[in-house]
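Title: Comparing notes on inverse folding

I've been comparing how different people in this forum approach sequence design from structure. To keep things fair, I'm posting one structure and asking everyone to reply with a full sequence. Here's the target:
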């Protein structure tokens, strides 16, 4: 896994579509950044975010309740 991940990288890892990935990248709670109109997230920030998601009660690792809030 590269040090910086793109929308496509996250799509593959999470098995989600492009629209859901962009919704995720546009969330304030998702620690991504933009550079020249492209979205990125560092590998470390992604791993920390995933650990936080795993600890949420009752989510059962589903992104829909997280993204749709």
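Reply #1:
Here's my take.
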């Amino acid at each position: 896994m590269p040090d910086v991940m793109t929308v496509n990288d996250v799509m593959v890892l999470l098995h989600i579509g492009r629209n859901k990935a962009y919704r995720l990248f546009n969330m304030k709670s998702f620690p991504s950044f933009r550079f020249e109109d492209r979205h990125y997230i560092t590998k470390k920030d992604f791993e920390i975010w995933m650990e936080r998601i795993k600890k949420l009660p009752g989510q059962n690792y589903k992104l829909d309740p997280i993204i749709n809030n």
